[in-house]
Design goal:
The protein is an all-alpha fold and about 120 residues long. The chain is built from three helices and no strands. It has one domain. The longest helix is centred in the middle third of the chain and has 67 residues. The protein starts with 6 loop residues before the first helix and ends in a 5-residue tail after the last helix.
């Protein structure tokens, strides 16, 4: 049986199908972007809150350590000076190891988040 449709009808249908496909792909990309952005922002929020809590805990821990060192050292000023040196050493370690403990994990996380295809 021969096709009774005109070639122009076929091209119009093909054009409409391609247009609908492009619209659907655009919507899919928008939804996927919003999903990944939500995961990224929620992860950053959780990490920020954890860092704030750890900093507060370290502050009080070192404060109590300074007071615990007073009977040994005989001076509150010296014990606070030692705590300051500990903070400077931790800051130096963080700067020296920033690639290993901050940059590389962040790059791995972002690469996994944005470039791995999810099996849905």
């Amino acid at each position: 049986m021969l096709n009774t449709h005109e070639p122009t009808d076929n091209f119009q249908q093909l054009y409409a199908d391609v247009k609908k496909y492009v619209e659907l792909q655009t919507e899919y990309l928008k939804v996927e972007f919003v999903e990944k952005l939500t995961i990224l922002l929620s992860t950053l929020l959780i990490i920020t809150l954890i860092i704030i809590l750890v900093i507060a805990a370290l502050f009080y821990l070192f404060f109590s350590l300074a007071y615990a060192l007073v009977p040994i050292l005989g001076s509150l000023a010296i014990s606070f000076g030692i705590i300051s040196v500990i903070y400077l050493i931790l800051t130096g370690l963080l700067i020296l190891l920033r690639k290993r403990i901050i940059i590389n994990p962040l790059v791995k996380f972002l690469t996994k988040l944005f470039f791995n295809k999810s099996n849905k």
